[in-house]
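Quick illustration for those who missed Monday's session on complexes.
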Amino acid sequence: MKILILNGPNLNLLGQREPQIYGSDTLADVEATCRALDAADLTFRQSNHEGELVDWIQEARGDADAIVINPGAYSHTSIAILDALNAFEGAVVEVHVSNIHRREVFRHHSHVSGRADAVIAGLGVAGYPVAVRWLAERG
Ligand code: CA2
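Prediction with CA2 bound:
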């Protein structure tokens, strides 16, 4: 199974600031943890740019079987990312490191959630390997 793992804006700062919200693991640590599962063929990407995320989702059509996406703040604003995911035929898991429902009201709604097959929020970075394992077992 081929899984594309996408991270949106500012997630490159994971582990470097705000550890009380996002923990102390870096995105490289997250990638290593997911790869250590040896459960799927993984591609990791992070971008601070909405259009680049849209391009990668489009490129995954006919290539990846599933997308794990933490759209970051674009979760709450981006119809473009939702539209791109709607054009992707595989499974989608939305991951948030923090529990967005326990934070500011503007974080409570995610445009992506209505397209996602599963949504994980508040497990910290442990949400990523959970998503990968779930997708691999689901097949
Ligand atoms: O909880 C999540 O995973 C979020 O997607 C993270 C986004 C936030 O805008 C969403 O509402 C929830 C922000 C990512 C920022 O990451 C940082 C990590 C360390 C230091 C600063 C920012």
